[in-house]
Each structure stands twice: as C-alpha cells, then as structure tokens.
C-alpha cells in the first residue's frame, strides 16, 4: 500500500528535500509549514504518519502533537518528531505529549527513510495485514489469555502488563513504571524493570512489548 506522510516544518529547504526523497520511495507526501496548518491538512488527507518539527511558529510541535492525540479521527496516526532539539529531556517531552518516535537533526536521508519504513510496518499489520494476536486480561484472577491459552502471572508482572496494555501504542517511561508498580518509596535496582519485561516476553511473546532504549516501553496489541 502507498502510505500517506505529512511533513510539518517551517524550513522550506528541509520540507522540499525530505519530500523529494520520500516521493522517490513511493510515499504519498503532504506538507505544512506550522502546527495549525498541519491540523487542517491532516483532517483532509488522514495521513498514516506525521513527521513533525518541534520549533515552529503559530503552534509548536508539542502543542500540535497534543492536538493530534485529542482528535478521534487521527487516533491511529503515527507521530514522529524530527527536531534539532536532541537532548534527553527534550526527547522525553516529545514522548510525553504522545509521539511514537523521536529522531534528531541532522539525519542521513537513508537512515530517516529506513526508520520511517520500519515504523510504518505497524500500519500494514492493522490495515489488511496479519491480524495481531489477541491478549485479554482478567484483573480479578491475575491471569492473561494469549493465543487462547491462559497464563498465570506473579502480581508485579501482571501489574506491569496491565499498565502497559492500558494505553496501547503509548510509550510508558521507566520513571512512570517505577512509580506506579513499585512506588516512589521503594528502592529497586536499575535492572528490575528489564528482568520483569524479559519474563513477560517469554510468556506472552516477544512482539507485544517494544523497547525505546533508555526511555521506556510500549505495548503493541
């Protein structure tokens, strides 16, 4: 399928360069120069993915991303920041407002295309691709049903899965996991979350939980 990509940046040179290369890859490309225009264009073209700058006039990237996430018509749209603001705190802010990924400028075009291609595989899986494996959670019995098979989980693993699956596709930071699963007063080792994630993957499959290195985890239904 030909995916629709909306490029949002206030620098015409960047827009034209990225647009040209994505068109060569067979994508259908739309453009906008600021956040307000991006929302209008997105409402018309319903893009599969929005590549969004952080620093823009009228509406900045963070405000635009929040507006996208509030719009039911854009519920399934993937949002990727492409920004010169590459500090960890800026990236955390980007994920916090609902971004699916965060890329930093400058970036080689081959790498950008490769990353977007990998991200858009999610659209293929939900639009006529292989149906995702269903997972159902029984909160009273602390059990999970996966592939028709019932799996019993220890309380912490169950709580972790319940937290991640409560917002499919949304990044949950490590700090949020520590606070909600172990509590802010409990001291745990840096590898505690990793160990629990590894055990969950062994029981429900590797593909349901993806890692954003150094930031957190995302549940893929």
Describe the fold and architecture.
- The chain has 221 residues and is of the alpha/beta class.
- The protein has 2 domains: 4-126, Rossmann fold, CATH 3.40.50.2300; 135-219, Orthogonal Bundle (Arc Repressor Mutant, subunit A).
- Helix content is 43%, strand content 21%.
- It contains 8 helices and 11 strands.
- It has helices at residues 12-24, 35-45, 61-70, 88-96, 109-126, 155-165, 174-182, 192-204, and strands at residues 4-8, 28-32, 49-52, 78-83, 101-104, 135-138, 143-146, 149-152, 171-173, 209-212, 216-219.
- The strands form 3 sheets. Strands 2-1-3-4-5 form a 5-stranded parallel beta sheet, with helices on both faces. Strands 6-7-8 form a 3-stranded antiparallel beta sheet, with no helix packed on it.
- Strand 1, helix 1 (12-24) and strand 2 form a beta-alpha-beta unit.
- Helix 6 crosses helix 7 and helix 6 (155-165) packs across helix 8.
- It is elongated.
Report a brief summary of the structure.
The protein is of the alpha/beta class and 221 residues long. It has 2 domains: 4-126, Rossmann fold; 135-219, Arc Repressor Mutant, subunit A, CATH 1.10.10.
């Amino acid at each position: 399928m030909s995916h629709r990509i909306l490029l949002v940046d206030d620098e015409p040179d960047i827009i034209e360069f990225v647009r040209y290369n994505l068109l060569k890859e067979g994508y259908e490309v739309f453009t906008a120069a600021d956040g307000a225009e991006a929302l209008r264009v997105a409402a018309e073209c319903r893009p599969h993915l929005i590549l969004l700058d952080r620093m823009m006039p009228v509406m900045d990237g963070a405000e635009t991303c929040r507006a996208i996430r509030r719009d039911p018509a854009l519920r399934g749209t993937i949002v990727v920041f492409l920004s010169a603001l590459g500090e960890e705190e800026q990236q955390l802010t980007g994920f916090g407002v609902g971004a699916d990924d965060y890329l930093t400028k400058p970036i080689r075009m081959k790498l950008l295309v490769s990353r977007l291609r990998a991200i858009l595989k999610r659209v293929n899986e939900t639009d006529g691709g292989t149906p995702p494996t269903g997972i159902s959670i029984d909160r009273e019995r602390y059990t999970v049903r996966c592939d028709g098979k019932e799996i019993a989980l220890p309380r912490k693993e169950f709580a972790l899965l319940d937290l991640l699956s409560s917002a499919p596709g949304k990044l949950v930071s490590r700090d949020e996991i520590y606070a909600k699963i172990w509590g802010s007063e409990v001291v745990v080792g840096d590898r505690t979350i990793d160990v629990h994630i590894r055990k969950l993957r062994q029981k429900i499959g590797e593909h349901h939980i993806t890692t954003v290195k150094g930031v957190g985890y995302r549940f893929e239904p």
